[in-house]
Amino acid sequence: MDKIEHIGIAVKDLEAANEVYTKLFGKAPYKTEAVESEGVSTSFFKVGESKIELLEATKEDSAIAKFITKKGEGIHHIAYAVKDIKAEMKRMKGEGFIVLNDEPKKGADNKLVCFLHPKSTNGVLIELCQEISE
Ligand code: ZN
Hints:
single chain, globular
């Protein structure tokens, strides 16, 4: 793994949260994007070399909606950048981690992503992401 790519924060109201984080960082998100397949709307802020992703559920049965019902707003996942997501997924499975997808899927911000179940990572949902090169 190369670095922490971003930290994902689950929010109830993306518009309201965007205002809070715009004040916090002194600048607006550089991108907002809906990921239909995941039932989320996202926005991304840059803080130096780091990124923060805010996620709001757009469907009642989405993972973010369930997370907020169970735990409330807060840190949802930590994403790590990898160069070869398929190789990393294979390595993770080999190490006994619970990899939540069989194949990488298209995530927000031009990434291929997959998730590791928090049960196998001391309670933290981990996202692996690889930049899609075009
Ligand atoms: Zn993420």
